[in-house]
Design a protein that fits this description.
Blueprint (H helix, E strand, L loop, with lengths): L1 H22 L1 H6 L6 H4 L2 H26 L5 H25 L4 H27 L1
Length: 130
């Protein structure tokens, strides 16, 4: 069952990464970012956003590879889970420094803080039982 969940997550990560790759900063605007035209047209910000989109797709690729053999790839999957959790912590830092993000980003933050520990425990039990 965990392998299926990871395969479904793969689709989400790759689609979100593609969204940022194709739309650049406009993808952030879909999440509620209020960006002036100058920022949207800034080549550095656009480049960074598209780069992070491809990096985000890497999560999907790694989850897909890990789902093929949970026991063999448990360490790599744990790293993925905890890096994703760290991303949620980074959002908390941003919230503390700059105020509350949009409701959509708060929803992402909740999933980033809750899902990785749950998936980590699930993986530990699955790998131990295998």
């Amino acid at each position: 069952m965990l392998a299926l969940v990871l395969r479904l997550a793969t689709i989400v990560f790759i689609l979100v990464g593609l969204l940022h790759l194709v739309l650049g900063l406009h993808a952030d605007m879909l999440l509620g970012a209020r960006l002036p035209v100058e920022a949207v047209n800034d080549p550095v910000l656009d480049s960074q956003n598209r780069f992070y989109g491809t990096a985000f797709m890497l999560y999907g690729v790694l989850l897909s590879l890990g789902a093929r053999d949970l026991s063999r790839h448990a360490a790599m999957l744990q790293c993925c889970f905890w890096c994703f959790f760290a991303g949620g912590l980074a959002r908390l830092v941003s919230w503390a420094l700059h105020g509350a993000p949009s409701p959509m980003v708060v929803a992402l933050l909740v999933t980033e803080l809750l899902l990785p520990p749950l998936l980590s425990v699930w993986l530990s039990h699955t790998a131990r039982d295998a």
